[in-house]
Amino acid sequence: MEDTPMTKKETLLSHEPHGATAHRYQVYRQSKNGCHYPHGDRVASPDDAVGLFLSANPAFEGGGLHLWDHHEQRAVASTEWHVEVTRMGFAVRARANLFYDEALAVIARGMTEREALEETISSRLRMTV
Question: What is the pTM of this model?
């Protein structure tokens, strides 16, 4: 009879939901065979997760990226690639980040606006020097 409670305890611990872990988000990169593998560290902070996702590069040209929420067990962001033709006639891929969680989308917009402002300020400083 003593084995039964021990087995139940092990079963409960082995099936503990991911929400019990401190690290909530993980970026996954698609490989050429279509499988997705973890990229970088798992992070708890939404700001860190969005920053990691925005700075992550695909494993190959046009490869997929996904930001996975382990608490909600769903993708909260992914990338799409569109082909654009430059003025010189070259076809290039352009990345579009899609956020399925509005709170993360707000964080991403703030980060991209801040980066654009920093770039503008630094280019103006270079022009005055």
Answer: 0.72
